[in-house]
């Protein structure tokens, strides 16, 4: 940690800490405690232009969602991708196909990575319901972190509550506390006060546009690092919750983590740089660019999915196929991986009828077998999955 730079920070202070690290070694070091967020920030005209573009892009995405016959067209695939990429930022990796396949109730054998990613989906779905009724609070977030912790491959310390131990941000192979890239506030009063200030600030009425509010709130949350595990995933989820809470979006049809994953080094560097310099421009501009480009991608993918559905419907009409074949084909945009058993149960038809529907969609290239086995065969709409992965 660059103690010289952080020691001169205009938006935070270094405090002395001591204790025993995760390896059992005694240490003395310093931790960074951010000041409360400001009511207003001075930004350059270039950054304000980025803010304006982010606002316009959010408006276009909101309008696109309102025009979709089924908002799930974007919401369900977007959540799967967000779960995949936000977890990848924390070192948990699985293919999108594996996550979608794992949603099938008949497939109980899950890897630890997939189970952890599905835990994020469960947490996010609960959060989307809660934020429509309640403000964003630390109490809400600790409950959500408990959901995430329950699916973790290794049981984190202090699950479902604000951490009672010191954490650091460091490489996996770090040798001592002094190898840390960043040391967040120590547990106790300073962390508690920081979180109380954050909660009040997030729920206050601001004259600032929502992209700036979300950018500052994300910086502060990650700097405080309130949990023993899951801070990045919870923090990125909060961005979507703020957009929903503010009315900038009416549906959680946005992923932000894929963009951060593609720019992960700059993402981490700018968060740290902001602490050292107190200059908000680089971080806010970066954040607003992420919002803008992701909103634009989602609008484009929504249009492409609608065109895919149109072409599939046309092909089915030409062949005069109806019934469960049509239902299954149209549902593939929100549930692009299926089995015969799942299809039979979902549409309340016999297994032979489900097999016939799947076989016909395979025949025209709408579905592709993904497993290559004689039992528990899994089929996927690869065109839909490719569009989702392009977000």
Structure explained in plain terms:
The strands form two sheets. A three-stranded antiparallel beta sheet has the order 3-5-4. A hairpin with a 5-residue loop joins strand 1 (12-20) and strand 2 (26-34). The chain folds into two domains: 3-300, Fic-like fold, CATH 1.10.3290; 321-389, Arc Repressor Mutant, subunit A. It has helices at 3-7, 45-67, 72-88, 96-102, 112-130, 138-150, 189-203, 210-224, 231-246, 257-262, 264-277, 281-319, 324-331, 340-346, 351-363, 382-389, and strands at 12-20, 26-34, 337-338, 368-369, 379-380. With 391 residues, the chain is mainly alpha-helical.
Q: Rg from C-alpha positions?
A: 23 Å
CATH topology of the largest domain: Fic-like fold
State the helicity in percent bands.
55-70%
Strand element count: 5
Per DSSP, what share of the residues sits in E-state strands of 2 or more residues? 5-15%
Instruction: Describe the main β-sheet briefly.
Output: 3 strands, antiparallel
Task: Kindly name the structural category.
Answer: mainly alpha
**Assembly state:** single chain
